[in-house]
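Morning F.,

Quick status update on the modeling queue. The single chain you submitted on Monday has been processed. Sequence for confirmation:
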Amino acid sequence: MTILIALSIGLLAACLVILIISYARSRERIDLLYRLRLYYNDEPIVKSELPVFVKLMDFVRRTATPLGQFEPIEKYNIRMRQAGLPLLGSEFAAIILISAAATGIFTFFLTLNTNYAMIAAIGIAVVEDVLVGLRIRRRRNAFVNQLGDCLATVADSMRAGFSFTQSMEVIVRDMEPPISDEFARVMRDLSAGVSLERALEDMDKRVNSTDFSLVVTAVLIQRQVGGNLASILDTISMTVTERIKMKREVKSLTAQGRSTAKAVAVMPFLVMIGMYFFAPENLTFFFENDIGQIAGVVAVVSEIIGLYIINRITNLEDA
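Structure tokens below.
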């Protein structure tokens, strides 16, 4: 049985490696198709050197078509843009369903236990959603870290005689992603006939940062009442830079607490692995005994509550 499990896990890992490699090779095509799908409803055709990738993407799109009709799926469109992923919200939901079903079936064949299969299926779906959330957070932090230089560049460009729109083109040309990608999306919106106010508000929703919301508010007010926008952006740039410095200082001061949170999260799994190898009879108590199962659930809930409390203590909330 152990050999079968090892072979199955090795086969699954090989398939994942193949999919990752094929995705990396076709990233440029996927990015282009994603930009086109922002404005057109035509079904894209993703080409890859590996036929299995093409078939997989076709299956994902066929599954995503009926899912796109559900209104709650719409929120994933924003999340995909916030994460910078070349997927539609319905396609991401389809990937979650497919991977959860495959994981559940795979776990059931390994354990012949329906409960374990359901837990594995739900677990993989939660993990995928959490990974997207982490990617959104990293991308937002990278955007905010670039925002000070971006505002200074826009202010200097406007002093040199450029308009605000032309200054945004400078950002798209000279700066790195993700801020250049977001301003490029604004330029595409403008070329499609969207007003500057609407394009900036849409960008504000995608970025979801209080620092950039301040910038958008200042620009919109300046367009209504007038004023020296370059001077305003300089002031905001200094404010954003100071906020970033303060957040970094707080992050360094809370490093010990965040390390504690990681240790608290990893320790139960390390204990379970040690018990599996050195005292497996103690571990079976939590799976075969009713009291053990209740104790296991209480332990998991307590773990989640503890991590949440530590996270709330050590994280600096956006003001």
